[in-house]
Amino acid sequence: HPSTLTSVSNLALVLESQGKYEAAEEMNRRALEGSEKVLGKEHPNTLTSVNNLAVVLGYQGKYKAAEEMNRRALEGREKVLGKEHPDTLTSVSNLAGVLGYQGKYKAAEEMNRRALEGREKALGKEHPDTLTSVYCLAFFFHQQQRYEAASILYERASSGYQRVLGIEHPATMTC
């Protein structure tokens, strides 16, 4: 039942937040298999399950498998929701991260830029998700030792977070 699958997915998120990644992976796989069976492979909830599994695979360092799942989520969301939907842009951002971890820097930068530009257009320049994309691109540049570009973006993200979320918010503090 879809409500049961939501509970499985919620449990997976709790396990993930506790750092119990293997158990979270198991629950995410269960939620995905059930969603595919009950809702179909292209249903938005199924694609969310694909995305959630990709994230937990990435946390475990299973980057190749995470990339495959991120690509599946992205392709499905582009088809079902459109290229500029916020969930699609989350998939773009997630794919950028896993590409970067694998040393696929050119593709990672392209995905980071796509996520940022898409979020600016769809959500506005001050939306927290847009600011997260600014931060992600800054962090990517920082890892590449492109410090000048990183600094400009870090400043933009930091000042935006301060205005939108406040000085004490965890995202602001991290940035």
SSE layout and pairing:
Layout: H1 2-17, H2 21-38, H3 44-59, H4 63-81, H5 86-101, H6 105-123, H7 128-143, H8 147-165, H9 170-174
Helix pairs in contact: 1-2, 2-3, 3-4, 3-5, 4-5, 5-6, 6-7, 7-8
How many distinct helices? 9
- Extract low-pLDDT stretches: none
Question: How many individual β-strands?
Answer: 0
Alpha-carbon distance between the two ends: 41 Å
Structural class: mainly alpha
Could you report the average pLDDT, rounded to the nearest whole number? 96
Protein name: TPR-like protein
Keywords: Cytoplasm, Repeat, TPR repeat
GO molecular function, one term: kinesin binding
Pfam family, one: TPR_12
Describe the structure.
This protein is mainly alpha-helical. The protein folds into two domains: 1-72, Tetratricopeptide repeat domain (Serine Threonine Protein Phosphatase 5, Tetratricopeptide repeat); 83-174, Alpha Horseshoe (Serine Threonine Protein Phosphatase 5, Tetratricopeptide repeat), CATH 1.25.40.10. Helices cover 82% and strands 0% of the residues. The longest helix is centred in the middle third of the chain and has 19 residues, at 63-81. GO terms for molecular function: kinesin binding. InterPro entries: Kinesin_light, TPR-like_helical_dom_sf. Its main location: cytoplasm. One of its GO terms (biological process) is microtubule-based movement.
